[in-house]
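Internal ticket - ligand job 248, adenosine-5'-diphosphate:
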Amino acid sequence: METTTGSTVRVAGLVRRFGAGPQQVTAVDDVSLEIPAGTVVALTGPSGSGKSTLLHMIGAIEQVDAGTITVDEREITALGRAALTRYRQRVGFVFQRYHLLPALTVLDNVTVPVLPRRGRADHAARARELLDAVGLAGRERALPAQLSGGQQQRVAIARALMGAPGLLLADEPTGNLDSATGGQILDLLLDLRDRHGMTILLATHERAVAARCDRLVRLGDGRIVEDVDLTDGEDPAATFRRAAGLRL
Ligand code: ADP
Ligand code: MG
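stdout (structure tokens):
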């Protein structure tokens, strides 16, 4: 698999509002975060606290009302159209419901992000490599419906890796899976961090998932209400004990 280097992400004073007048909701309310390369951040908080909106803004698929997003020293919020499109093609996005195209084979689902570009044979070769890396070698010609939920999420992760991202954004990636399968998906994400230094921002409701991340950022009504380093000089057992007591 092509080697990537993790991205550094800086978010400053980020705001996103929906609606107008008395019905207006501030989905993300003055959020600032510095995420060093190679960190796996669990983004937690109740439903409606702004997790998805924040991930979408960092992935440049949601408008920003105020504030800045800087990835690897490039201010995303200041990019023009063409540069934004290139940025979106590089960032990996994984969703709770996989978002695979049901009529396409596993292999074609993985190459979807690069379909309009040239060098299809190369793309297929890379897609095969990625499917192998996520444990799906031999399933290239299957249709999504023929796979289990965990396997479908692996396809979605392979697709997200197609652009060799330094940053992976995952919105409740284990939310549709039983805990054992969800644990395997998290193993896969942590392995990407270990082997490629990938930076991962992962929204989750699940305490067991958050506890295995490097850092926990909890949102409440669009604001950061808790930001804890789960690794800081602690041995893994102590990190686990502390994380086990975390409120999510
Ligand atoms: P979470 O992912 O933590 O559940 P969201 O980011 O989806 O939270 O939502 C945060 C708030 O913004 C909620 O009040 C939600 O209803 C609102 N919201 C999100 N997206 C939209 C939208 N496209 N239009 C209107 N309101 C939205
Ligand atoms: Mg959400």
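Auto-summary: The pocket of magnesium ion (ligand 2) is lined by residues 51-52, 171, 203 (CB under 6 Å). The chain has two domains: 1-90+165-247, 100-164.
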